[in-house]
Amino acid sequence: MSHKLKIAGWVTVGALAGALTTVSLQTVARGALAPLPLEELQQLAAVFGMVKSDYVEPVDEKKLIQDAIAGMVASLDPHSQYFDKKSFKEFKEGTTGRFVGVGIEISQEDGLVKVVSPIEGSPAFRAGLKPNDLITKIDDTAVKGLSLNEAVKKMRGEPNTKVMLTIYRKDESRSFPVTINREEIRTQSVKGKVLEPGYAWIRLSQFQERTVDDFARKLEEIYKAEPNLKGLVLDLRNDPGGLLDAAVAVSAAFLPENVTVVSTNGQLAESKFTYKAAPEYYQRRAGNDPLRRLPASIKTVPLVVLVNEGSASASEIVAGALQDHRRATVIGSQTFGKGSVQTVRPLGPDTGLKLTTARYYTPSGKSIQAKGIVPDVMVDESEEGNVFSVLRTREADLEKHLGSGQGAEVKDAAREKARDEARKKAEEQASKAPSERPKVPEFGSDKDFQLVQALNQLKGRPVLISKTMVERKEEKKEN
Fold first, then answer.
1. Under a CB-based contact definition with an 8 Å cutoff, are residues 129 and 190 in contact?
2. The PDZ domain covers which part of the protein (predicted)?
């Protein structure tokens, strides 16, 4: 592995603990600090002293300092962050794909937690939970009114502790309690299957430590089931990112050796780097390259990449690399636009600082920060259209977002009009009964409209292109 990669340690790009990030974890000591503004630091010390001595009641000194650090870092951009003990632990859990809980993939429906799928072999799987089960209570707490993150936190806990879930199973019209013993869960970030003779689908939901091994294993299974693969769909929809080395590896699986996958640029010397499609840029251990097991035809099999507004960071790196090298046709909607790099540096044994240190660029040199990857073919979520996608938050919607660094941002009046129309339609739909509201089919199902269009693209058949979606330009920030 190169010297710079050794310094960087490991890099993650994605949604971890609720924040979209691109991160390298560094444990090396930094160089000498820049000259400090003494007058301002004296003011900070004076304010600290006044709060400590004059505030109406005693304050926790450590909390004051932690809050001051957190406020200073949060004022920079949406992705720089101070990690206290709890959030640092959650951050590290997010990159390993390991956590202690019950083992279910969930979403929200009508204010309740919906089971999308129990993770195979998990406590929830063994307890008999099924897809579409609704969780109405977690222990004694009603789920209605909780955010998804709050519900997740209540279901997680220490190993070998119990949590009672109250389940409503719609197809049986009954509610019942289930007591589950929490265990360490290893999430599965790769799914895939042969869709029909000659064509397969592989989905990455996040880029984690195990993703490359699981990705190679799943492709081996696909080729074993269908040796004469004519086309493959790589599904990155709603993939918030994860480890950069995993993104480089997935890109390298399809690209010629040694071509550029992504580059980064910032003030620090180690922030100026180019990652290429070669083992030394993604291997975690010498001699361990899972991609070597893959058939040579993976480099030439016709490929479609599916993306949407939820595709961010690492998934944008993969989509951008495959698009720039003309290795794949990118289909769907414009991606999130998370193109900045954050470095995580430990501040002690259990706290850390995540700081934006660079932007990343596709092989052709384009920054996708606050813009995203524009698909080659724009396709709606459903045959009825893509009305609500404009309401989804993207990088350009975040307060204090970093600009692309490649020219001025422009205001998109058409998008604002589309958002207003979508809001009105969303209000109309909210007044209807749940059964009458439109639902996006499960990814990978036979009702997955975008997947059907991806197959049409691979087969040379007509693709139903969106009549409403247009490229979203980077929006101008107010000074």
1. no
2. 88-170
Q: Exactly one of 324, 380, 412, 448 is catalytic; which is it?
A: 324
Answer yes or no: is pLDDT of 93 > 80.
no
User: Which of 313, 340, 367, 466 is labelled catalytic?
Assistant: 313
The domains of the chain, with CATH numbers, are: 99-186 (2.30.42.10), 190-340+360-459 (3.90.226.10)
Taking phi over 0 as left and psi of -120 to 50 as alpha, with beta for the rest, 292 belongs to alpha
96 pLDDT band (50/70/90 cuts)?
Answer: low
Q: In the predicted model, what is the mean pLDDT of residues 88-105? A: 78
Active site includes 338?
yes
Residues 423-470: tens digit of each pLDDT: 666 666 656 665 665 666 789 999 999 999 999 999 999 999 987 776
Among the listed residues 154, 276, 338, 371, the single catalytic one is 338
List CB contacts of 344: < 8 A, sequence separation 6 or more.
23, 24, 25, 26, 83, 91, 352, 353, 354, 355
Among the listed residues 185, 197, 193, 361, the one whose alpha carbon sits nearest the alpha carbon of residue 271: 361
- Element holding 260 (H helix, E strand): strand 260-266
149 vs 18, 39, 275, 465, CA distance in Å? 8, 41, 34, 35
Active site residue 313: yes
**Helix, coil or strand: residue 14:** strand
Of 188 and 330, the one with more pLDDT = 330
389 is catalytic: no
Do the Cβ atoms of 290 and 276 come closer than 8 Å? Answer: no
